[in-house]
Amino acid sequence: MFKVERHRRIKEILKDCRQIEVSSLSNLLEVTDATIRKDLEELEREGFLTRFHGGATLNSKETDTPVGTSFVNQITEYDKNKEDIGRTAAQLINEREWIFLGPGTTSYYIACALRDRININVLTNNFLVAQALYNSPGIRVIFWGGQVEYPGFYTIPDNLEKEFENMYLDKAFFSIDGVDMNAGYTLSDRPVYDLISMIKTRSRETIMVFDYTKYNQRAFMKIGSLDFAATIVTTPAIPDDYKQYFLKHKIQIYTTYDLKPINF
Prior knowledge:
By secondary structure, the chain is α/β, with parallel strands linked by helices. The chain has 10 helices and 15 strands.
């Protein structure tokens, strides 16, 4: 990647995330930390950002960005765990596949990791996902209309069954609020519960994405037991009892930066 293109991508990423680490940028752009540090020095001289030890933050004058970007900045905070999960989950998506990215900021980070891909079809009801991909010519995005759910910033059609009557997906990605050995996968948001239940029946593969903070947590409604999805993407810090469960039930686990499922 040429320097001009790197600088453009760094600016896009910082406008979305406001703050990012050198190591994250080097992984995203597939260059060395030294190259990123030099890029950040040049962009700091332009007045675009301010460097700190190990990373950079967007200067306040640059926050007057287009409506879509500032909208994302207002309702999200940069989360490196979710960014890493998003990058790993994106590696599971192949060309020509139809995928669903559900509500939540984790889906937003998956979308960010897909920006430079080509020939991928995305169905979403997540405003953050639509904003992340609106200027990606290689990605076909179909945004699902319906009633807007606040503060989740997603939509729910009036008739889920009718919307999915003749629709089929290759992969569907969902995040959840809690992962518990007894309660299974749980959510607090009823509309998302209904959505997951319907889309699972229309998708070849359902993939749960969540970080270490969700283990041993329970929310209001149970989606299903821990074998509800045959594939998960998570951070490496997996409690031992969950490792044993996943192994016993032959659940494929991808942790951040893994290209192959883990075999415990």
